[in-house]
Design goal:
Elements: E1 28-29, E2 42-43, H1 48-77, H2 86-89, H3 96-103, H4 117-128, H5 134-161, H6 165-176, H7 189-205, H8 208-219, H9 229-239, H10 245-250, H11 262-287, H12 292-299, E3 304-305, H13 308-322, H14 328-349, H15 356-371, E4 372-373, H16 384-387, H17 392-403, H18 406-428
Antiparallel strand pairs: 1-2, 3-4
Helix pairs in contact: 1-5, 1-6, 3-4, 4-5, 5-6, 5-7, 6-17, 6-18, 7-8, 8-11, 9-11, 9-15, 14-15, 17-18
Length: 434
Amino acid sequence: MHRLESDQPPFAAHAYHDTLPVTLHRLPAFSSAASHQDQPARQTPIDWRSVMLQALIFWVVTRLGYAFFTFFLITVLKHEPLNSPAFWNIWFIWDGPWYLQASQGYTTATSTAFFPLYPLCIAAVNLLLGGSQAIAAALIASNLIALGTCVGIAVFAAQEEQETAGGLRLLRIVFAYPWAFFITAPYSEGLLIALLAFSLFFMRRGAWRAAALMAFLAGLTRITAVILILPLAWEYGRQHGWWDRDAWRAGTWRQRIRIADIPGALMVVSAVPLAIGLYMLFLWRRFNNPVVFLQVEHTYWHHANWTPWYTGFELIRRLFPGTPLLSSDRALQVITLAVLVIFGGVTLANLRRIPVAFTLYMLGLLYLVISANDPGLPYVLPSAARYLLEALPVFWLAARWARTRSWLDSLMVNGGWLLQGLFIIAYMTGLWIE
């Protein structure tokens, strides 16, 4: 595997011929070789036309695949007619009804655990459909948002890989992940991943207003967006020369911090907290309690935050001897643990091979995944595998490795789609597969 530069965004060796004449095309990308914030930025042209066409084709193909799979389950397994409400309802389980309830105005405190941006998307689509097709609106919203997810992932990969083909490789790896069907389901996964991908993309190009806007919207989508705070802060400081080792050793680092750069730093660091704070202000006006969403997470869903070492202790205690060897709970626990070990191992093994901002992003995500638990469940780390859909840097590394290893590509893509098909069947039949 080629060693990646620690913090250097890739630069194209040649200009693309079909880049669109838009502002984004002229956004600067900064070199880690630039030890001073005033050094001229180098440009990395993005072939927006090719990237978006690539994402659109991939989106259409996967939508047709999910539609055919749904048709098969309804007509063959459930013996329902195609025009039956089951075509929509079969996807609409678990968290789906809660997002639908939130889209109707947060009439109960329990719905506040579901942040507002995705419910607002459902409400907007439902309004376009006449206001009486909420279930269909939720699925349509998810699938339209999935197009933005595809574009975000593809442009993120094109930026880091210096080539448009990198976008397709990363899309194949991400969507073949066995839990990637939650991007299609009425969940906020697709919207959050799209916003995270665009925020990382703009961050690496030094487009700080756009990066902050994407982070702000991510903060309105799910509290998980807090994992962006440290990467944004680090990358902003890096591109402005704040973390230069020589300057710190010489004691001249203060000279690198210009007053004009501080507002930009405050903007990118405060984007996610500002979004969460605005949601809390809304909850204070609505329920006289700005932290009601945290309280219902604890009282209704019994969620608790454990330290990583306590999570490890509970894993050992419940897994060995724990539940029966062939039980579904133990199988789910083993699968979740294996996925977490793989993602954590890849992150730790590549600390010096990927940009520091990506490492901070992954460490934040892994911490949140490990600390979020439900003491009442027979297994630990519920929904961990679904949350790891947001691990874009790990998927990016996997796509790089698969580029020259056909056996690995076949294993991840073909094996992933096979497992995903099985998981979709389990999900649609009401089994917990998060």
